[in-house]
């Protein structure tokens, strides 16, 4: 019997590409199911002239999508995991986390070829406080300038405006097949230079709790290693009560069933940077452990100070 499933997605080119990738994988295994995409515009998509940290609130790119799930207008939604708040709306669950794409950040230059040879006082485009703080920690002379929009918009701004470099996620560039098309020098920033955002490079497929059919088909896309890494990272974020208005980074890797989690909490100017790296086998316990060690170093004071000044 044919069944139709409505899939929610943001309207951006990257979001639609990710959603179509998920559908293509499911279609192979469930040819009897018809999938239809419903495009949803979120608050984060509507407000493009203000940095995300100033818009405030959590779930800027998912709240309207979650409303559509709860209203049963859609059956599941595909998100970039880094956009998903550490606490989901009541009644919703992550149905699957597929295998992660490259989680690193990419620094794309107008004329330079690496971070070291950017000129003194170079202008770097990023609206991410996490990226800005970590780059300023290494190069405090850099000028950080907000930049919003989809990938091609930001690349056009690099070419036409006064940016010397911009920072984009490697995962988005790869999913959009942009890396081979770049006409500018670029480098991947290793995790010692710029630790990724929590969940960066991973997808979150969200559905209603109790929707057995949808949950069962989504589980065919589940990658347990990615899931455990993301659980550790998101536990860290939740324990710190972090959001896009705080320079927090967290990235977990797994080798021989052991999870290694690095966490960073920085001041906006990058001058204060608390870093912790720990290993363990339980992702939830590891996330809590790294969070507590960061708190012991003074992370809560940084976070509270930023919230009070925001």
Automatic annotation (TrEMBL):
<dbReference type="Pfam" id="PF03900">
    <property type="entry name" value="Porphobil_deamC"/>
</dbReference>
<dbReference type="GO" id="GO:0005737">
    <property type="term" value="C:cytoplasm"/>
</dbReference>
<dbReference type="GO" id="GO:0004418">
    <property type="term" value="F:hydroxymethylbilane synthase activity"/>
</dbReference>
<comment type="similarity">
    <text>Belongs to the HMBS family.</text>
</comment>
<dbReference type="Pfam" id="PF01379">
    <property type="entry name" value="Porphobil_deam"/>
</dbReference>
<dbReference type="InterPro" id="IPR022418">
    <property type="entry name" value="Porphobilinogen_deaminase_C"/>
</dbReference>
<dbReference type="InterPro" id="IPR022417">
    <property type="entry name" value="Porphobilin_deaminase_N"/>
</dbReference>
<feature type="domain" description="Porphobilinogen deaminase C-terminal">
    <location>
        <begin position="229"/>
        <end position="295"/>
    </location>
</feature>
<comment type="subunit">
    <text>Monomer.</text>
</comment>
<comment type="pathway">
    <text>Porphyrin-containing compound metabolism; protoporphyrin-IX biosynthesis; coproporphyrinogen-III from 5-aminolevulinate: step 2/4.</text>
</comment>
<comment type="function">
    <text>Tetrapolymerization of the monopyrrole PBG into the hydroxymethylbilane pre-uroporphyrinogen in several discrete steps.</text>
</comment>
<feature type="modified residue" description="S-(dipyrrolylmethanemethyl)cysteine">
    <location>
        <position position="244"/>
    </location>
</feature>
<feature type="domain" description="Porphobilinogen deaminase N-terminal">
    <location>
        <begin position="5"/>
        <end position="215"/>
    </location>
</feature>
<dbReference type="InterPro" id="IPR000860">
    <property type="entry name" value="HemC"/>
</dbReference>
<keyword id="KW-0627">Porphyrin biosynthesis</keyword>
<keyword id="KW-0808">Transferase</keyword>
<dbReference type="InterPro" id="IPR022419">
    <property type="entry name" value="Porphobilin_deaminase_cofac_BS"/>
</dbReference>
<dbReference type="GO" id="GO:0006782">
    <property type="term" value="P:protoporphyrinogen IX biosynthetic process"/>
</dbReference>
<dbReference type="InterPro" id="IPR036803">
    <property type="entry name" value="Porphobilinogen_deaminase_C_sf"/>
</dbReference>
<protein>
    <recommendedName>
        <fullName>Porphobilinogen deaminase</fullName>
        <ecNumber>2.5.1.61</ecNumber>
    </recommendedName>
</protein>
